[in-house]
C-alpha cells in the first residue's frame, strides 16, 4: 500500500517527486500491487507527443470487469456495489451487491453477445441514471466491446450524429425517464434519431416508465425478457491494455463533437488510484457523485474508479430540487454518505434556497466534499464549506477533463491545505506547465499562463475516434511536445494552481462543455438569420450563460423578435439539446470583424458581460461603427 494512500502533505511531496523522477516505476508499482492482469506488460510506457502516440502497459492483457467485479467476490460479495436512489423519494433504494452486479453484468453481456456484439464493436448507450446504465457499460467491457454513452438530455440530432460518427450497430435505451416531476419520452427521441442511422441493427429497450412506445419490428426488443433467459455467467473477454474501452463525445470549439477514445489498462489504473487518493476512500465508506454517467465524471468516478476499489457507489436518478431543495441532504443523511462530489452550479443553485433545507438533515457522516466541472467561486466555496461541511470536511476542487480521463489537479484531503478557488497541486504523475501567448514556457511561481501537461499519465485519451489528425492538431500543436488543455491557469507563490477558465471558444455552462460553433450552426439554419456569434457571460447559478448576437437577413419585412427568439432556441434544442439554449439574444445590424473577416468575440464578450470600459483598439476593425450600435442596443 506504500504509495497508494497518501496521508499527509510531506508524504504527498515524497510521492509526487518520486512519480516525476521515474514515472514508469511509479505507475508500474501501483499496477503490480493492486490489479488483476491476465498477462503482465512488456513495457510500461512508450510515448511520442509529436505523433502523438501514447501506450501504457503495452503487451498486458486484462479485463476491467474482472477488476471491478470478479476479484471482489472472494472478499466482499455481499457488500453493496451500487446503491440506487430512485427519483421518487417514496420508493425504496436498491442495494445491488457485488455478487448481484456481477450476475447482472454477465447476463447483459450474454444478451449483447447473442445480438452479435463482438470485441471492438461500438455500442451506443442512451439511458437515464438507472442501474441498467452502469450495468450496460460493464456488460460492453465484459465483451471487449466499446461503449459510447450519450447523455440522455441530448436531442435526437445530437444522438444520431454520435451514433453515426463511431458506427454503432447496437443501441441501448429506455422507454422513458423520470426527472423530478417530469416524465421524458426517451424512446421517441431514439426513434427520431434512428431514422438518420441506417447502420443501427438492434435496439434494446429497458422498461422504466411503462409509457407507450412504438417498437420497430426486427430492430427493437425489450431487454428484460432477454436478460431473464440469459445465462448468469459469462467469462470475460481478455483484451490488450491498449484496446479501447470507450468513446465519449465532448464538444470542440469548432466542428462536430470529438469522440475521445480511452483505452483499458492505463484508464483503470489511473481512475482507481485517483479515486482512492482524491477521496481518501476507505473500505466502509459510502461514496456519492451526483454527476450523470453520460459525462466523464460518471464514467470515471461513479463506475470504474469506485468499483475498481470495491467501493459502494451511490447512483441517483433524480434532480436536486425534487421533491424539494433538501433532496441531496436527505440522501446524504439516509445513506450516511461519506464522500460527496458535485458541481459548482448545483452548489450555487442550492445556496439560493432556504438554509433549513440543509440544516434539517444530519450531515455528520461527511468526510470529504468535492467539486468538478468549472471554477468554483469563492462564495459558493464558503457556503459549501460552512453549511454542508460544517468546516469539518475538506473541499477538493478537482480539475480535469473528458480528455484526461481522471482527476489531474486536486488537493489530497487531510493532506493538502485548501484555499478557496484553488485546485491546488497536481496528482502524482501529473506534470503541469504554463505557457505565455508566444508559446514560451513560464517558469517559477506567482505566474499566469496557458495550462499544458508535459508528460503522459496513464488515462490520457489516445485519439479522437476516426480523426487522429484532429487529435494532434487540437491538443499537441499549440505547445509542441506537450498536451494543451485549452484552459488558463495561474500558479501562486507556493505553486498552487488556480484554473482561470477556457482560453478557446468553449463555454462552460452549468458545468457542461459547449462549443460555440455547433450552436452558431444551429442558429444559422433559421431562414431569417444571416449570421450569429455566441459568447459566454457571468451568470449567478450557471457560472456562464450564453449570449447570442444575431444579425437577420435584410428582407424589408418586419419580424416579431420574441417569436424569433423562441424559434432560435427551439432550433438549438432540436439540434443539440436544451442545455445549449441562449439566455439572451440580441439582434444586431452587424458583428464586429477583423479585416480578415474573423468575428471579434473578445469585444462581444465584454459587452455581454457589461464590461465596456476597456474595449481595446477597435479602429483596426473592418466595421468599427457596429460596436457602438451593439452597445447602444445591448440587452439590460
Ligand atoms: C473543462 C473540461 C472533468 C469532468 C467534468 C468536465 C473545466 C473542470 C474544473 C475545475 C475549473 C474546471 C475546465 C476543463 N473544469 N473542472 N475544478 N476548476 N475548471 O469535463 O466537459 O471535459 O470539461 O471543464 O475548463 O477544461 P469536460
UniProtKB/TrEMBL annotation:
Its EC number is 6.2.1.1. InterPro entries: Ac_CoA_lig, ACAS_N, AMP-bd_C, AMP-bd_C_sf, AMP-binding_CS, AMP-dep_synth/lig_dom, ANL_N_sf. SUPFAM superfamilies: Acetyl-CoA synthetase-like. Transmembrane segments: none annotated. Residues 519-598 form the AMP-binding enzyme C-terminal domain. The keyword Signal does not apply. One of its GO terms (molecular function) is AMP binding. Residues 12-68 form the Acetyl-coenzyme A synthetase N-terminal domain. Residues 70-456 form the AMP-dependent synthetase/ligase domain. One of its GO terms (biological process) is acetyl-CoA biosynthetic process from acetate. Coiled coil: none annotated. Keywords: Acetylation, ATP-binding, Ligase, Nucleotide-binding. Belongs to the ATP-dependent AMP-binding enzyme family. This is Acetate--CoA ligase. The lineage of its organism: Bacteria, Pseudomonadati, Bacteroidota, Saprospiria, Saprospirales.
Amino acid at each position: 500500500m506504500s504509495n497508494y494512500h497518501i496521508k499527509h502533505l510531506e508524504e504527498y511531496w515524497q510521492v509526487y517527486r518520486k512519480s516525476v523522477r521515474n514515472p514508469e516505476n511509479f505507475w508500474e508499482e501501483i499496477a503490480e500491487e493492486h490489479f488483476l492482469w491476465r498477462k503482465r506488460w512488456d513495457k510500461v510506457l512508450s510515448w511520442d507527443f509529436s505523433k502523438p502516440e501514447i501506450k501504457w502497459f503495452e503487451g498486458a492483457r486484462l479485463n476491467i470487469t474482472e477488476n471491478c467485479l470478479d476479484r471482489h467476490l472472494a472478499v466482499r460479495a455481499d457488500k453493496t456495489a451500487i446503491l440506487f436512489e430512485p427519483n421518487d423519494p417514496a420508493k425504496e433504494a436498491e442495494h445491488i451487491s457485488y455478487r448481484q452486479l456481477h450476475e447482472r453484468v454477465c447476463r447483459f453481456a450474454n444478451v449483447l453477445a447473442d445480438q452479435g456484439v463482438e470485441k471492438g464493436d461500438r455500442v451506443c448507450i442512451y439511458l437515464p441514471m438507472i442501474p441498467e446504465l452502469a450495468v450496460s457499460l460493464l456488460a460492453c467491457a465484459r465483451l471487449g466491446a466499446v461503449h459510447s454513452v450519450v447523455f440522455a438530455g441530448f436531442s435526437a440530432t445530437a444522438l444520431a450524429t454520435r451514433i453515426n460518427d463511431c458506427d454503432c450497430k447496437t443501441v441501448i435505451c429506455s422507454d422513458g425517464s423520470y426527472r423530478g416531476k417530469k416524465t421524458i419520452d426517451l424512446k421517441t427521441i431514439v426513434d427520431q434519431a434512428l431514422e438518420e442511422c441506417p447502420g443501427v441493427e438492434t435496439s434494446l429497450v429497458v422498461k422504466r416508465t411503462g409509457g407507450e412506445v412504438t417498437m420497430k419490428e426486427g430492430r427493437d426488443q425489450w431487454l428484460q425478457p432477454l436478460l431473464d433467459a440469459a445465462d448468469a455467467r459469462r467469462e470475460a473477454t481478455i483484451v490488450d491494455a491498449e484496446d479501447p474501452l470507450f468513446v465519449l463525445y465532448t464538444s470542440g470549439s469548432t466542428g462536430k463533437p470529438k469522440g475521445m477514445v480511452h483505452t483499458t489498462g492505463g484508464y483503470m489504473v489511473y481512475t482507481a488510484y485517483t479515486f482512492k487518493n482524491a477521496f481518501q476512500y476507505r473500505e466502509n465508506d459510502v461514496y456519492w457523485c451526483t454527476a450523470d454517467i453520460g459525462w466523464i465524471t460518471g464514467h470515471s468516478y461513479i463506475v470504474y474508479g469506485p468499483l475498481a476499489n470495491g467501493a459502494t457507489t451511490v447512483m441517483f436518478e433524480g434532480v436536486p430540487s425534487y421533491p424539494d431543495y433538501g433532496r441531496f441532504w436527505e440522501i446524504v443523511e439516509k445513506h450516511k454518505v461519506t464522500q460527496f462530489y458535485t458541481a459548482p452550479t448545483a452548489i450555487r443553485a442550492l445556496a439560493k434556497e432556504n438554509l433549513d433545507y440543509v440544516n434539517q438533515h444530519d450531515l455528520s457522516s461527511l468526510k470529504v466534499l468535492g467539486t468538478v466541472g468549472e471554477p468554483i467561486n469563492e462564495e459558493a466555496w464558503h457556503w459549501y464549506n460552512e453549511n454542508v461541511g460544517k468546516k469539518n470536511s475538506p473541499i477538493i476542487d478537482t480539475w480535469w477533463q473528458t480528455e484526461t480521463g481522471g482527476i489531474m489537479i486536486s488537493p489530497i484531503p487531510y493532506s493538502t491545505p485548501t484555499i478557496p478557488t484553488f485546485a491546488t497541486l497536481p496528482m502524482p504523475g501529473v506534470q503541469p506547465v504554463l505557457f505565455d501567448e508566444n508559446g514560451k514556457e513560464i517558469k517559477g511561481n506567482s505566474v499566469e499562463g496557458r495550462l499544458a501537461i508535459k508528460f503522459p499519465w496513464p488515462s490520457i485519451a489516445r485519439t479522437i475516434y476516426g480523426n487522429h489528425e484532429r487529435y494532434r492538431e487540437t491538443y499537441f500543436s499549440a505547445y509542441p511536445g506537450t498536451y494543451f488543455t485549452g484552459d488558463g491557469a495561474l500558479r501562486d507563490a507556493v505553486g498552487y494552481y488556480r484554473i482561470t477558465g477556457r482560453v478557446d471558444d468553449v463555454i462552460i455552462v452549468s458545468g457542461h462543455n459547449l462549443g460555440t460553433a455547433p450552436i452558431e450552426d444551429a442558429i444559422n439554419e433559421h431562414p431569417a438569420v444571416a449570421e450569429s456569434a455566441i459568447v459566454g457571460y457571468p451568470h449567478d447559478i450557471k457560472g456562464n450563460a450564453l449570449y447570442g448576437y444575431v444579425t437577420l437577413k435584410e428582407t424589408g419585412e418586419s419580424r416579431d423578435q420574441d417569436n424569433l427568439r423562441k424559434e432560435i432556441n427551439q432550433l438549438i434544442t432540436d439540434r443539440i439539446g436544451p442545455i445549449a439554449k441562449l439566455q439572451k439574444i440580441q439582434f444586431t445590424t452587424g458583428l464586429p470583424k477583423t479585416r480578415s473577416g474573423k468575428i471579434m468575440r473578445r469585444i462581444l464578450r465584454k459587452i455581454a458581460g457589461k464590461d465596456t470600459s476597456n474595449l481595446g483598439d477597435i479602429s483596426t476593425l473592418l466595421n468599427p461603427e457596429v460596436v457602438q450600435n451593439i452597445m447602444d442596443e445591448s440587452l439590460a
